[in-house]
Amino acid sequence: MRNRADPERNSPCRSSYGGMNKTIRRAAVFxxxxxxxxxxxxTWVQGYEAKALADDKHNRRNTIAQYAQPLGDIVVAGSxxxxxxxxxxxxxxxxxxxxxxxxxxxxxxxxxxxxGATQLEGIYGDVLDGTDNRLKNPLDVLTDKRAQPGDVLTxxxxxxxxxxLEALGGKKGAAVAIDPKTGRILGVVSTPSxxxxxxxxxxxxxxxxxxxxxxxxxxxxxxxxxxxxxGSTFKLVVAAAALEDGLHTSVDEPTDSPQPYTLPHTxxxxxxxxxxxxCENATIRTALRYSCNNVFGRMAERLGxxxxxxxxxxxxxxDSEQDVPVRASKSVYPTEMDEAQTALTGIGxxxxxxxxxxMAMVSAAxxxxxxxxxxxxxxxxxxxxxxxxxxxxxSDTERIVSSETxxxxxxAMVTVVEDGTGTNARIDGAEVGGKTGTAQHGENxxxxxxxWFTSYAKSDGSGEGGSGREVAVAVIVEDSGAARSEVxxxxxxxxxxxxxMRAALG
Length: 506
Hints:
Distance between the termini: 131 Å
Structural class: alpha+beta
Protein name: Cell division protein FtsI/penicillin-binding protein 2
GO cellular component, one term: plasma membrane
Helix content: 25-40%
Pfam families: PBP_dimer_2, Transpeptidase
Strand order of the largest sheet: 2-1-7-15-16
GO biological process, one term: cell division
CATH superfamily of the largest domain: DD-peptidase/beta-lactamase superfamily
Radius of gyration: 32 Å
Shape: elongated
GO molecular function: penicillin binding; peptidoglycan L,D-transpeptidase activity
Number of domains: 2
């Protein structure tokens, strides 16, 4: 019997439907995989990346929340130097205001709705806007409610700060004042300055552009963040190294210092500013008094770069993490150099650089019997009720040089002020010691030199066991508009230091 073909089996419709079903199944599986991948991504974003996305600086919601209520304040001597002002319209309810903005800008920095925050405003931003978890009570934690903002209490003395700004006047420069016993920073001045209120809103683009394009860079904190050659003020570090090493045992002992002094392996003579000064084989006291370059160039050569660098680093040079709590730029003593270059470092040249903060630290350590107290310009961070969240101790000290070395160098620094190159820093009724400096500026010293002065002052009764006041001050004048022949540490920088020291001593 002949077999008949199954009509369904060979049907073209059956073959077409079978292929279609297979395509649909594949598409369905692919779609399910896409949905599964999307769910995984959504879970990852919500579960793992949510905080990062929420904290992203480009997240507008964060800025809205930050300025939804008045900010906490930065406080100087019990009075706030910052505030908050209700805005007119927009989604940012409040903006930052400043009292005496140009006076305190080197301390506060700025808080801008458009350009972010710097210095204390930036470091303590979460305390000042109420997002720091330490500000929250248990109920706030449960409800995720924003707490009342806290405040930042500074160590700044308004009288010292004002004296520094007024004394610098229209000059380009900076100054720092420190309490040697406690490390409290009493003044941080940088000129030209600026008013942070002018850039605190969202429509301050013109003011921001003027500030950022100004060739004098008013937004640069010269006191903390612009290291420059310290010139002859660095001779204090070299003298300390010589006394601690035993190269010399007394500031009144003659040194091996030919005059003229030729840099090793060169024909370059290291000249003295005062050609008639008694600098040949001068004692350290005389060499500081007249600022003899030959003495300290030869001294650095004899000590060698390693010993000079070791002493510089004890004072704080080459420290890349100098936080006060604003991070100061590193002051540098170079590592690679030949003998001639080592001799140049002895007078604060070659590649030696320092901030005014660093040179104030040198004077402060010598004033405090060879002990350096950790410099800081914040005393406390508190919540809205005044409860301390963070405190910066005043008693954290480190021995830099021996008590004997410090005493000898103080005595020599007093000679500088009483009968040497620093007479403009004298204060009646106070012990004042200092060191002037004039540092080369530009290739082959083609530009106006920098004028430096670093010093300390003690009022009556501030000696051992006394209750008088003490202060250490360093000043740099980058540009005063004076003729090159009139630029000197005593003529430009010492009077500024004197005004700040007088204010500190009360």
